[in-house]
Amino acid sequence: MMIDVKQVLRRGSGVLAAMLLGLICGQALGTTQPENGAREVVETPKLVVVIAIDQLRRDRLFESSEAGLGRLKHAGRVFTAGQLAHGITTTCPGHAAIMTGLNPDGHGLPSNSFLDRATGKVQYCVGSDDPGHQVLGGSKGRSPSNLRADTLGDWLKAKNPAHRVFAVSAKDRAAITLAGVNPDGVYWYDVAQGRFTTSGYYQDQLPQYLLAFNGQDPAVDGFMRGFPERWTHAANGVRADDYEGEDTRYENVSGHPLRDGAFEDIAKQVYASPFVDEATMALAQLMVTEEALGQGPALDLLSISLSATDTVGHLYGPRSAEAADALARVDEMLGAFFSVLDERLGADHYWVVLTADHGVAELPEWTQETNSLSCPSDTGRLTPQALYLGLNWHLYKTFTWPFGDPRRLLSLEGGHLYVPEAGLSEFGLTRSAVVTEVISYLESKPEIEKVWRVEALANASGELAVSMQRSIVPDRMGDVLVQMGEGCLVDELGTTHGSPHNYDRDIPIVFYGAGIEPGKVPGPAYSIDIAATLAHYLGVEPSTPLDGVVLNLTRESRRQSERVE
Predict the structure, then answer these.
(1) Per residue, what are the HEC states of 115-183?
(2) Is the pLDDT of residue 213 over 60?
(3) How far apart are the C-alpha atoms of 12 and 9, rounded to whole Å?
(4) Which helix (H) or strand (E) holds 276?
(5) Quick one: which H or E segment has residue 195?
(6) Cβ contacts of residue 564 below 8 Å, gap of 6+?
(7) CB atoms < 10 A from the CB of 259, how many?
(8) H/E/C letters for each residue in 334-346?
(9) How far apart, in whole angstroms, are the C-alpha atoms of residue 147 and residue 458?
């Protein structure tokens, strides 16, 4: 059996007219209590689909909106001020916040990797040393064992084991953190294999339909076989296709290599293109069919994270022709996917939640051209090499001259600056003295706005400080956190995220489905509110108190749950 991605996505690709929303029929799972005291009933869905579009800034949500995103725009409930509540805006904590309803200080994952203070080792957020958690077909361990909270899927299954929970993404850390502790199936794209896989934590073999989807050789008889040799796109981004500051690893103009070279190269090229999203959505659609999602005795939950907006965005920036093409393809794919759900379940029997794990900064070269560069430096960039060498030279002059190695005093791994105990002992120094010099040097750079001493951050005030406090996991942090100035990057090419500035924290939050009132809703809304809201309306109890609150899905005049700061 061979799976053609194009053929799978084409099924039901004609977008059906959106059903009128707000009709109340069927059994209610949850109720709300409006101000007038009447009970307001929300219709039961058969399937809830949570979609996280990696790196999708809120201001780009409807950049391409003729199909799937267009349906959400016109028939969804759009929270117009959606944000992350936490300040370290990376993929792992961003995805975990969506389904746990907790900030990183609650769910335990401060960044994509973290420093285990007990062992002094850097850990990948979904990495595992348990031999039973080895990736099928791979050599590394993957599981949710580092996650210190359970998720909406776990709460559903605790109430009724008949609820089924699945997740799929190009990224292991996205799929795993969305799925939680006890899902029925979690699959991701392993770049090293060029295949979708899972780990022994979940199951000891892949289902037959996924084996067929991968094929013996994905580029010959699997999901890549219909992909073109090169990724071509129109040069109609906001700025020129060939633009200064873009990463050139996969060429910076159309067409980019896709099925070019050895298979290991093809696997990487696919991951760096919108075609990895095409494969992810094709697999999600196949899972709906093969697992009969939404057709069982209880509600099912499917989480999908689309990663190409992030990989493409890092390379070319959010205003590029590549980014515009990637998002337009997402729009089309979601339109086809919603049509399949319409046909299989009925348009009034499923809910969709759309959000993102973080945003992204503009290319500094673009902000220079548009006279909107907010970074104090002329270029908006500070290269990692210059920062690393300069900091080590400063430590050498201050502490280890003439023969000592300053690198013994500072670790730059795990996304945090850490002063190892061994280095302090070797040179007879105190941690406070070294941290003070590190902060002094870094804050002398115009591109760096603030350097936080982690142990003192709890006493800081202000919006940015509070957001950073929500990202602090004390036993999984270094000694120092660096906050770049607004619009400043530590990158030689391309762009990135990770700061507490609005362009990294602003995200879309949209709910769509029968009984959910369409419209634009102003006011604060955070990704941590998604799990709290779904749990409330689906009638399930979180295992612990949440940071998120219940958003109103039915009537704008009703006050939302009180948020405790």
Answers:
(1) EECCCCEEEECCECCCHHHEECCCCCEECCCCCCCCCHHHHHHHHCCCCEEEEEECCHHHHHHHHCCCC
(2) yes
(3) 8
(4) helix 275-290
(5) strand 195-197
(6) none
(7) 18
(8) HHHHHHHHHHHHC
(9) 23
Q: Does a cis peptide bond (omega within 30 degrees of 0) precede residue 237?
A: no
Distance CA 399, CA 395 (A): 6
Whole-angstrom distance, CA of residue 3 vs CA of residue 10: 12
318 and 63 Cβ atoms separated by less than 8 Å:
no
Q: Strand 185-190 and strand 195-197: pairing? A: antiparallel
- The conformation of residue 492, written as its DSSP 8-state character, comes to S
**Segment 364-397, tens digit of pLDDT:** 999 999 999 999 999 999 999 999 999 999 999 9
Cβ atoms of 535 and 102 within 8 Å: the answer is no
Residue of 312, 349, 294, 362 whose CA lies nearest to 503: 362
pLDDT tens-digit readout, 514-555: 999 999 999 999 999 999 999 999 999 999 999 999 999 997
Percent share of the chain, pLDDT over 70: 90
Q: Can you tell me the distance from the alpha carbon of 310 to that of 292, in angstroms, rounded to the nearest whole number?
A: 30
Q: Please tell me the distance from the alpha carbon of residue 122 to that of residue 116, in angstroms, as a whole number.
A: 6
Flag whether pLDDT at 1 surpasses 50.
no
Contact indicator for 361, 499 with CB cutoff of 8 Å: yes
Which structure tokens are listed for 201?
Answer: 């934590």
Amino acid identity for residue 204 in this structure: D
357 Cβ partners below 8 Å, 6+ apart?
52, 54, 55, 90, 91, 94, 95, 97, 98, 174, 305, 507, 527
Q: What share of the chain is helix, strand, coil (3-state, %, to 5)?
A: 35, 20, 50
pLDDT tens-digit map of 474-502: 999 999 999 999 999 999 999 999 999 99
